[in-house]
Fold:
Amino acid sequence: MPFRGGLLAYWQRQSCLLDNCVHWLTGTNSRTMLYQLWENVGVLSKDLPVYQQPYFMQVEHSGETLHLWRDLSRLRTDMLRLSPSEAPMIEEFIHLVTIYQGTVVVANKPIEQYTLWQKIKLLFAMRKIGKVHRKYAKMSIADYAAQFHHPLIQKFLTTYFPVHYNISSLFFVFGMFTSGNADLPAGGSRGMGERMVSRYESLGGKMHTDWEAERIEIKGDRAVGVRFSNGQMVEADYVVIACDLHHAITQLLPKEHWDAYMQEHYVDHPEKYPTYSSVNLFYKVNHLTHMVPEARILDINALEINGKRIPTAFVKHFNYEPSFAPADTTILQVLLTQYDDDSAYWQQLRATDYPAYSAAKKQVADAVAEALEATFPELTDSLTLLDVCTPATNERYCHAYRGAYMSFILTPYNEKNSHNGRVKGLRNVYLAGQWLQAPGGLPNAAVTGKFAIQRLVHDAKP
Ligand SMILES: Cc1cc2nc3c(=O)[nH]c(=O)nc-3n(C[C@H](O)[C@H](O)[C@H](O)COP(=O)(O)OP(=O)(O)OC[C@H]3O[C@@H](n4cnc5c(N)ncnc54)[C@H](O)[C@@H]3O)c2cc1C
Structure:
């Protein structure tokens, strides 16, 4: 079971590399703290190319298109051309994205290790965002987008993230992308994963990816080791639990070590902390594509999953990584957003009726292929389905809570809480992983891993 790379997933099918993860990596700007962390774990370096996507996505409506350009002034011009009467709202939107370009992602050390002076400096650096954040963290994407009248602008704002996310989350992503701080590492998810493994092993680290931890062995207020499902017991001076937090507390740790964060998110009010996931499909195109944009919102006419219509999908190709596909062919990845009830549907179907689960995947794949062919006629009769994964796949390989691949959605009605990375009642056990800091993602996984080690080092000092 344990899956090397976890949700930073990639695998081979028919001589093609299926890159299931990274669409943008926050921290590619070399002046940021995150960049230093990515450099330290081997993901980025001055000698490695970073792919700078000219635009993050293209959205179309009634023959008009809008791109999230890397160049924000180009997006501004396009939006103004599209809807000149909404100029004040558009100018404000661009201004807000500019402010979020200055977001500082803390990645040097956990905040409790900051001196007072360092905290003041951080607050000062974040002062502009702090002001607008208070307002926009309380507004959903749906409500913000509804203030625009132009249907394409509304679609542009509402089709990438779930619309119950707060609008701050979208400003953040747009801000990171347009400030050149969210590009693609060389080799995509495989490049990232393999370089991290090499770096870890070069420092003496060892990996046992087929060992599944079954429980943490505890004596008093200390862990003494980890027991694995293959019968092995490994003694340990310190333990860092880096798997999905829900799995960790329900499988590895006794209840007396659950704290208020765990109780609130998973037991008392799980409904207040929604998550999302997707059905991901990969197709091989038996020629190079000239019509399909690098990343685009695809309209789908007739597709229902779990009794709900799915009107759009995100589609991208990987031509910028020629080694992913055999010469003169292209791989398309399509993502269909799924919510918690949909994840439950897929998991239930897979567990109770595997043939029906396979048939449901096939039905989705056929509907998406039809939409692709209808939108891009050059794809007709040239698509081969390579693979389909659902939220149930994330759960199966990574024990992902609700099959989600990001952490809790930041909504207008829940506070952003971070976990302190420690385990109540245990002096030598630390936590890492995206579930400690919403909304998750690769940076939060890496940052919490670093913080776990810094806490350990701090505690180990005589
Ligand atoms: C389709 C998709 C697109 C994404 N796009 C992006 C993106 O563009 N940018 C971005 O920043 N993030 C993206 N992400 C999210 C990113 O992949 C995750 O946020 C990140 O990988 C989470 O890392 P993690 O270490 O917290 O958890 P995981 O990746 O879940 O790692 C946990 C590991 O623990 C293992 N494990 C679980 N239980 C046990 C056990 N009992 N014993 C031993 N091992 C165990 C699992 O197999 C897994 O390997 C995407 C994810 C997906 C699926």
Summary: The pocket of flavin-adenine dinucleotide is lined by residues 2-3, 6-8, 20-25, 212-213, 242-244, 247, 278, 280, 397-400, 405-406, 433-434, 440-443, 445 (CB under 6 Å).
